[in-house]
TrEMBL record:
<protein>
    <submittedName>
        <fullName>Methanogenesis marker protein 11</fullName>
    </submittedName>
</protein>
<feature type="domain" description="TiaS-like TCKD">
    <location>
        <begin position="146"/>
        <end position="271"/>
    </location>
</feature>
<dbReference type="InterPro" id="IPR053870">
    <property type="entry name" value="TiaS-like_TCKD"/>
</dbReference>
<dbReference type="Pfam" id="PF22641">
    <property type="entry name" value="TiaS_TCKD"/>
</dbReference>
<dbReference type="InterPro" id="IPR017674">
    <property type="entry name" value="Methan_mark_11"/>
</dbReference>
C-alpha cells in the first residue's frame, strides 16, 4: 500500500487565469486553464447562469467565459446555481474578477483560483463545508493577438501546423500567453502542398511591447525554419475577427489571388509580416481562432458556435 500525503487536500490550483479585454473594456473573455477538467465542467455549467456571462465554452482543458464587464447580484441556490461570476472590473492595466460559490463551489471560487499562475493578488473568505464563500483575484489586463500562417512546407518536407505550434510553445510566457492553435481547412486549390490547410495562433499580450517582441520572434523563427519560399504571416490585433469573416468564407469556397488578399488585409486592419503567397490562406485562418473543432470542417460556418 502506498501512503498518500497531501499538503492541501482540498485545493486544486488552476494552471492559469487570464483576462482578455476589448479596446473599450466593455467586454472581456475570462480564460481559465484548469488542472481538473471534471471540476471545471461543473463550474462551467453553473457559471453560465451568471448575469454577466454571455457565453461559456471549453477548448481542451481551458474554459472560456465571454462576459460583460461590471457588477451583478448572484442569487446562489444549492445544486441549481451554486457558483458564479459576480463582477469583472477593469482598472488601468489590471482586471479584478470576483467569484462566489456554495460548498465545494466556494472552494473553487476562493483558494483554487487565488493560487493560479498569473494572479497578481487576491482576497477571499473562508470556504468549504456548507459555507457560502467569495473570492476576488486581480490579473493583468490583456489584449488578443491573432496570427495566421500558411505555406511553411513543401511537397517533400514539413508541416505548417507542427512548426507553428512548436514556435508558439517556445514563446509562451507571462507577458504573451499562448492560448490556442487551430488548423483551418481551405478550398483545395491546385497550388497546394497536399491538404490545403492553414494555421492560426492566438496569444494574449499584456502590452504593445510584449506583442512586438512576440511577433518579431515568430517571424524570425518562420524565416529560419520554413522550407518554402511562399510562407505567409498575417496579424490581427482585435477582440474578435469579424473584420475577416467575409474573406475567410470566400477562401473556403473558392480560389483567391494574392493581390486580392493583400488589398483585403490593407482595407481591414490586418498586418502583413511575411508576404509570400501563403498570405492567401493565412488571412483566411484568422477568423477561426479558438475554434479548432469547427475550423477543420469544410462545411462549418463561422457563426455556428
Amino acid at each position: 500500500m502506498k501512503e498518500i500525503v497531501l499538503e492541501d487536500p482540498y485545493t486544486i490550483p488552476y494552471k492559469g487565469i487570464y483576462a482578455v479585454c476589448d479596446k473599450n473594456n466593455g467586454y472581456a473573455e475570462i480564460i481559465e486553464h484548469t488542472n481538473c477538467y471534471g471540476g471545471a465542467a461543473w463550474v462551467k455549467f453553473h457559471y453560465s447562469h451568471s448575469p454577466l456571462v454571455l457565453k461559456a465554452r471549453s477548448i481542451g482543458n481551458m474554459i472560456r467565459y465571454l462576459v460583460r464587464t461590471g457588477t451583478s447580484h448572484l442569487e446562489l441556490k444549492p445544486s441549481r446555481f451554486a457558483a458564479g461570476i459576480e463582477s469583472v472590473i477593469v482598472s488601468g492595466d489590471e482586471v479584478s474578477i470576483t467569484y462566489a460559490g456554495l460548498g465545494g463551489g466556494g472552494v473553487g471560487a476562493t483558494r483554487c483560483r487565488a493560487l493560479a499562475n498569473g494572479v497578481l493578488r487576491y482576497e477571499c473568505t473562508e470556504s468549504g463545508g456548507g459555507r457560502a464563500a467569495k473570492g476576488t483575484i486581480v490579473v493583468p489586463r490583456r489584449e488578443r493577438v491573432i496570427i495566421g500562417i500558411d505555406d511553411t512546407d513543401t511537397k517533400e518536407k514539413g508541416a505548417t501546423w507542427t512548426l507553428t505550434h512548436n514556435i508558439a510553445k517556445e514563446l509562451d510566457c507571462p507577458e504573451s500567453i499562448y492560448l490556442s492553435h487551430s488548423l483551418v481547412q481551405l478550398y483545395p486549390v491546385a497550388a497546394r502542398t497536399q491538404n490545403c490547410v492553414s494555421t492560426v495562433l492566438e496569444f494574449a499580450c499584456t502590452s504593445a511591447a510584449a506583442k512586438e517582441e512576440l511577433l518579431q520572434s515568430i517571424r524570425a523563427a518562420l524565416i529560419r525554419y520554413s522550407v518554402s519560399k511562399d510562407t505567409g504571416m498575417v496579424v490581427l490585433s482585435d477582440f474578435d475577427a469579424a473584420a475577416v469573416q467575409e474573406y475567410s468564407m470566400k477562401c473556403r469556397s473558392g480560389e483567391l489571388s494574392r493581390e486580392y488578399a493583400l488589398r483585403y488585409a490593407q482595407e481591414h486592419g490586418v498586418e502583413i509580416w511575411i508576404d509570400g503567397n501563403g498570405i492567401i490562406g493565412a488571412l483566411a485562418a484568422l477568423a477561426w481562432f479558438a475554434r479548432p473543432d469547427d475550423s477543420v470542417r469544410p462545411d462549418a460556418m463561422i457563426g455556428d458556435n
